[in-house]
Amino acid sequence: xxxxxxxxxxxxxxxxxxxxxxxxxxxxxxxxxxxxxxxxxxxxxxxxxxxxxxxxxxxxxxxxxxxxxxxxxxxxxxxxxxxxxxxxxxxxxxxxxxxxxxxxxxxxxxxxxxxxx
Length: 117
Fold this sequence. Notes:
Blueprint: H1 8-31, H2 35-52, H3 60-81, H4 90-98, H5 110-113
């Protein structure tokens, strides 16, 4: 569908939706300790979410999802590759996004963030 559409806005929307679904796959494989698959789906998720967020300001819930993706992708990369330094570090990209105010949609998941005031 992404390749078939000529509308750039629709293309970015589809890329974002695919990236979000791939992030779910990353989380599943991360929990299952399948580092290679987590890394593969994480790479695809980063690629699609970044493409889907080009030329626009992210909503708080979107920034929060992207920040969580970068953090989880970085964990999967470290686990899969067993290295700490590399040119691209997801945690460095995650911090500015995760330091933003938590969107109301994430209040049900406060265990990840700590207390919400």
